[in-house]
Amino acid sequence: MAVTTAPVVVAVCRDGEHRFGKAVADEITLLEGLGVEGDAHAGVTVQHLSRIAVDPTQPNLRQVHLIHSELHDELRERGFDVGPGQLGENITTRGLDVLALPRGTVLRLGSRAVVEVTGLRNPCHQINDFRAGLLKAVLDKDEEGNVIRKAGIMGIVLRGGPVRPGDAISVDLPARPHEPLDRV
Question: Where do the TM regions start and end (predicted)?
Answer without folding.
Answer: none
